[in-house]
Fold these 2 entries.
Entry 1:
Amino acid sequence: MKSFKLLTTGFLALSLAAASASAATLDTVKERGKLLCGSNGKTAGFSAPNAKGKMSGFDVDFCRAISAAIFNDPDKVEYIPLTSKQRLTALQSGEIDVLSRTTTWTMSRDSGMGLSFAATTIYDGQGFMVHKDLGVTSALELAGAAVCTRTGTTTELNMADFFNKNKMEYKPVVFEDRSEEKSAFFSGRCDVMTADRIAMAGIRANAPGNPDDYIILPEVISKEPLALAVRSNDSEWFSLVRWVAYALINAEEMGVTSDNLAKMLKSEDPAIQRLLGVNGNLGEKVGLKKDWAANAIGAVGNYSEIFERHVGPNSPLKIERGINALWNQGGILYAAPIR
Amino acid sequence: MKNVTHPSGAGAIPGSSFWNQPVYRSLIIQAITFALIAGTGYYLISNLVMNLNARNIPIGLDFLAQRAGFDIGDAAITYTAQDSYGRAFVVGIINTLKVSLISILLATVIGIVIGIARLSPNWLVKNLTRGYVEYMRNVPLLLQLFFWYALLTHALPSARQAFNPVPGVFLSNRGLFLPTLESDSGFYFLLFGLLAGLTAALIWRFRANTLQKGTGRQLPVFWPFIALLATGGLVGWLLSPQGITVDMPALKGFNFKGGIEITTEFFCLMIGLVTYTSAFIAENVRSGILAVNKGQQEAASSLGLSPVRSQRLVILPQALRVIIPPTTSQYMNVIKNSSLGVAIGYSDLVSVGGTTLNQTGQAVECISLIMLVYLCTSLATSLFMNWYNASVALTER
């Protein structure tokens, strides 16, 4: 009977292990002492190692903000590099806590996959980049072209829709990894590369030779709201991720920056007092301390600072705010109020 | 005392306790092992189903009938984005099988040549082939694929400046474009002509064989065989009422239209698989030849057989018995290694399955399907090679 007992204890231990895996994400993160952030690691401007070998970029800063909100330290993050094919499965299976990797929020991903999109971080759209010497000025002249893209992206589907809708034939060449995709495009294997326009601006900025040899065509063929994603079985964690992102946008709206944070902590404005936890304790509602947002802003700055640092006009990507400006400045960036 | 004199028997030993009876003990151990394996399997599967349910992820293969919505660049059967995920999978399977089969054939031919050349008395031939084998099998295949892909895409000209050595043949970094034969009914005439030619050729070979067995006189077989086959095909073509036209590829817009296209991705994967696998097969061939007794070679020479004929008629048939079993596993490696094509943009099963996985979120089902296909093709290869191995085995009389 000894072996039978052993068997039952074994199964119990296994079930317990499985049970703890589905415990509250925030508790798991705190216990582990770091956040597991699904990232790309190869897209300049969004997430790539900087000159010091540290991960840096627009997507990375949102993970740093979440880490700062939880631990008051933006560096308690482990970045898990994922291909576009792996990313959703990695999140489903609990390999990462949050996915911050230029992932488009779509209905089919938001329903029936066990995932939820917490907040849009940037509004992008799909476009085409071509070799300048082809003399192409519009995406409607691309009939018959060889098009490079990556597997497992909405890009792949939008491309099919666009060419089919306009009755143009084309030859897709689909890669697993961005490095090979870029190499194939720059070598001329493909006439066209298609991706989200902001990410593509980063690829163009780092083109071998002269970036001016390549042009990004004016057509925007899709809506790509790139958003933070979490598992849908933990609504508290979902709220935490959403409100950290919203806090950064609200901070820009209120003029709170990482530089003037100390001064703003003494502000008389009740909205700023609520945001920074001077008055009330909204952080408690998402399981955090009351200075959560102040810590996040202090670590990475507000939305505008993040944007300017990694993708804005003074960065190598040279992207204008455009539709990513605040709602009261002509854009569509609108975060629900913190109150 | 019968039980004591035959302790190895499975019968019960009187007088010893229940636990010390070999028959019960062995049964219990087997039962526990089985229960452990079945229990773990059941636990894992039920855990998976529970977790998928908890996350609202549907289970099942229904998604295969849905519209795929993505295009595949290199499809052997007609396929558009309007077709189902199931059909996309089939396209992927065909692409995997296509590159595997062609690579296996070429790797075998090159492997045999290199394996024999490694045993050549000529210093240069011996060492060149040795260098080939050592380099090819000691560098990871994935790196070799990246190398070939970077080389071909960067070294070959763009589509507009494509090499055009013969009319209708274009080579660029898009791939190789060749003319094809086009006809509606002409193909049947051609096929019929070829069949007639083949029958005539087989009859000729049979006659030559019987003549040699009966009288010892040898008739040429190889060239008449080819000539009869070609004549049959030619007559069939000439007899076809509509004639057969040649479809020439031509540059239209960005790409070549018409003819047949061998894409750079397919070609690179094939080159990589062929060079890598042929190195292993060459070593199998070399070991097989070395395993044949030296006396066989001497006997063949003393009978007056030329070196080529003694290799073909005496050495290789005996060496095959040693060569085939390890080569079977190389063939299976080709099929499995073809999945690396996803890295250089070849639309194989893994690439298509991966896209499907990402669009539908059905990770478990997609990966299981991919694994099942590889398992089945490998088992089929193994079965075929075992049958072939049995057919060349030494029949003892």
Note: Chain A has a mean pLDDT of 89.
Entry 2:
Amino acid sequence: MELLTLVGRILFTTLVYPGLIFLVTVGLLSQWYRRKLVARLQNRIGPKYVGPIGILQPFADIYKLLFVKELVTGYYTPAKLIMYVLTLGIVTLAASTIFLPITPYSMGVDYDVLVFIYLTLYASIAYAIVGFGSVSPYPGFGGVRYTTMMAVFEPAAAISLIAMVRALAPESLSIYEALSRPRIVGVNNLLHTAVLVTVLVTAGVALSISLLSKTMMKPFDIPEAETEVAGGYLAELSGPALGLGILLHEVELALYVLVLSNLLIPLPPMLSSFPEILLSLLKYFIVLTVLIITAYSMGRVRLDQALRTLVKVPLPLSIFSLALSFLL
Amino acid sequence: MDALTLIGILTAVSIAVSVVIWLPVALKAKVRRTEMYLSGEPQVNFNLGITEVSWAVRRVFEKLYSVVLNYVQTGVFNDWFAISLPYLLILLALLTVAIIVGGGV
């Protein structure tokens, strides 16, 4: 009975809130926000036709790709298998939202940050598999390039996430506890507060840079360059497979930014009451805006430059923040 | 509940839910396959299955090798060390956390 209740809770959080439906909605709204913001930065208008001020444009795009367009693919490409890999990526990200305390059904256990890392890692692996699965050499190269970058950004993202959780919930290493009941000693203990802020900021910067490469935003979006000879892993996909690929990208970005923003600004904590949910979303959009402006102010870098940047900046920062978190 | 049990349950739920979501999309999807260009040869003479494991593995490793050769390698051994270093460090970090939080090996 207890197991059935648990599975019911997991199913609800995975499928509805804050899982699939919520994440897809937030992800697509964020895509609209990103497109509109970048358009304004570049003196363009951005999406404007579907819905008021074009807010429903990403939803219309995804609907058209998933249910209207046909999937044109090479003879030996396992198209439906690729679609499954992408769906599994989206669902594992949705399942990992069980640790977000914005619903009474969410839950946490000791060391659940490792479970979170394990579940969200699959999205990156899915991108690589999609690249390798295509017969055309271009997606293959895209997949290999992404895998090469993954060798550096995944450890950096994991270490910085552990550092932030270690700073806010040192006893349990629980991401749920770090978000809902962050342990902050208070402003009276100045040294403690200074170390805590340093850990959060350094790990936050490391996680942000890793996130830019993980979600293939500029300047790390070489593998996403679909239209160029550079070869993107989505280059040969169309119709429903491309729709799922875009959806996975948006859901991954939404989940990671939601976690990053609420760990970086731990007060007020993330709770299931309406004002706290609104505040969590406000923090989300603040961090998203900073990330978008930073990302789109830079030009695309080559693979070796990207690797050097990742090895020199986010990786040492994440290790430094983890080491510092042991002082707390 | 411990983390390992939760990993098992979440993995099982993810696989089950993803199959349920994927099936209708995959069944409804209109797939059009383009023929391969084989220098004028008929396709029946070209027997190349994606399911053939040895071929798939070779193809993946050939791509990996060529990318490593053409794009990643710089001729400096330190670069390889830098690339492989993160794995060692994450292991060390996890071990340190386990020792400190768990109170010893």
Note: Chain B has two domains: 3-73, 75-105.
